[in-house]
């Protein structure tokens, strides 16, 4: 148990609440292009491949920053990187909102990815330091539930606001909120329970120790099943939900934009609730592996339905997307799996290495989906945006389905930790 004073107990909840709000913005920025894909295509007169690059720029930077963020979280502490990330992300959001061209939008999107890339790992580090070990998955689930409000807002609400008032003002407002949260992180967040408000906590930065620590995580064979499940399951989620879901449902399933955006929000909502449910279920069962196996296989089956293009009654399609969301959340247990097979002091690095796979997959496969779809494009245009037939969509969607099925297959190699750290020195 963490022996905390009443004041420390109050501080940990307040700090975690502020960081969770920053995580809401991170999720919103991640999936915002999905809700306004047609608006972006029309505003910048771009193809699916170029639109994929615009959305994936976030993931390029996010991927590159995962390992450095884990190192910084374990050395400099989460407080400093959260403040710096909030400032950079806010500036990027301003730039994206004011962007007159695709090139400027790419720069803004890059800064957004750079700024928000630190939020999740910093949040995991705070949970690992401030909360009990056997509550880790539950607390991550709570934060994911809160953070996913951002992805829900990036679906139907963003689409409705974009149609009513335009999408640019939304990103300008998000930029201002990001700067406010950066200030609150500096005032409230502390790296450790014993760190008082007056202490800066002199950071220690040893490159040799950092490199050796990274190598110990990467060389640990028990880490890799968690990495691969995260890469496949979350990679498919980010690749398709991050940009292509609304256009796919509109063009293949003949849904109106509000209905398609509602499906996307339901996917995000199911994912948010699922993170809390499956995290709590795993902690109470005292097991990780069975929960991940069941969730990843249900996930793969729903993806096969999407690939088929079979149209269902709207009530049933809503149910399928809710199920898809809950099943998607199974990958959230991979962070606990990675943390529990590595040294406790390297919790930031082990979770960041695991997290890197999904963002690398999104960075590579999101543009690939657009490129494959452009190969099958028949030249049809509506309101300045390209329209694709079922064959073209199946080609692009097949990329995400491949990732999902790979994640399900790798779940069988997850190392069961029974919700405790099982690492032992060699």
Automatic annotation (TrEMBL):
Protein's recorded name = Lysosomal dipeptide transporter MFSD1
Source species, domain of life: Bacteria
Query: PROSITE patterns in the record, alphabetically?
Result: MFS (PS50850)
Identify the keywords attached in UniProt to this record, alphabetized: Lysosome, Membrane, Transmembrane, Transmembrane helix, Transport
Q: Where in the cell is it found?
A: Lysosome membrane
Residues in Major facilitator superfamily (MFS) profile domain copies: 15-419
Q: Which organism is it from?
A: Dechloromonas hankyongensis
Regions crossing the membrane: 12-28, 40-61, 81-99, 111-131, 138-158, 170-189, 227-247, 259-279, 291-310, 316-338, 359-377, 397-415
Q: Which family does this protein fall into?
A: Belongs to the major facilitator superfamily.
Q: How does it sit in the membrane?
A: Multi-pass membrane protein
Its annotated function is as follows: Lysosomal dipeptide uniporter that selectively exports lysine, arginine or histidine-containing dipeptides with a net positive charge from the lysosome lumen into the cytosol. Could play a role in a specific type of protein O-glycosylation indirectly regulating macrophages migration and tissue invasion. Also essential for liver homeostasis.
Q: Which SUPFAM superfamilies match?
A: MFS general substrate transporter
What the entry lists under Pfam families is as follows: MFS_1
How does this chain assemble? Homodimer. Interacts with lysosomal protein GLMP (via lumenal domain); the interaction starts while both proteins are still in the endoplasmic reticulum and is required for stabilization of MFSD1 in lysosomes but has no direct effect on its targeting to lysosomes or transporter activity.
Known catalytic reactions: L-histidyl-L-alpha-amino acid(out) = L-histidyl-L-alpha-amino acid(in); L-alpha-aminoacyl-L-arginine(out) = L-alpha-aminoacyl-L-arginine(in); L-histidyl-glycine(out) = L-histidyl-glycine(in); L-aspartyl-L-lysine(out) = L-aspartyl-L-lysine(in)
Primary localization: membrane
